[in-house]
Amino acid sequence: MLAVLVSIVSLGIVAQQCQAIVIYTGWERHALVGSDIRLSCSFFSWRWTSEEVTFSWTYRPDGSRDSISIFHYTGGEAYLDNKGPFKDRLEFVGNPGRRDGSILIKNLDFNDNGTFTCDAKNPPDIVGRPSSVRLLVFEKVPIQAGVITGAIIGVVLGLLVLVVVIYYLMRFLVARRVFSLNVSKHGKKKKEGSQQRQGPAPPADPSKVKAAASEKKKQESRKDKK
């Protein structure tokens, strides 16, 4: 029992002294033949950046199962590949003090297609899973799926905005038409009501009508005598 307790305490002390480190690289990079590309590598650690921080890069060509070491940084010194496929084409452009272990590969070729893996240690944090990035070299960089997806989303949003604008425009035109009809109908009813209040014209007085007719005959007979 005592041995078990000692083992548990020992494991706890080791876990406190040695915590996990998380390493980050890109997922996939595209580049043109003859161009240069920066492959980024950084890490997260709860510890301050140690003077003994290390970075290592390995490369596995497409179609191969074996990886080769192409870069190593330790003790403040960078060791570059001087015999392999990246001889005179690889440069260390990172900043270990800022947890940056990036490398630059120059004058890319189709044969550079493959997987690059970065590993980092920040003693006493040395437990962590290396991170990998795949490099694809093209004569012409293809349109990425994200660009196509973004374009599709933009078109859909544009169509939705257009539909909403048309909908509200139609509502406005219909409301305007209904308002005009209501105003016209109300004006017509008001005019008919005014005529009904005035009533029909009173009938003419028969005596006045007879006198007017007699006067008219007298005027006509005078004209005949002349």
TrEMBL record:
Residues 1-20 form the signal peptide. It is a single-pass type I membrane protein. SUPFAM superfamilies: Immunoglobulin. The keyword Glycoprotein applies. One of its GO terms (cellular component) is plasma membrane. PROSITE patterns: IG_LIKE. The chain crosses the membrane at residues 143-169. Residues 185-226 are annotated as: Disordered. This is Myelin protein zero. The lineage of its organism: Eukaryota, Metazoa, Chordata, Craniata, Vertebrata.
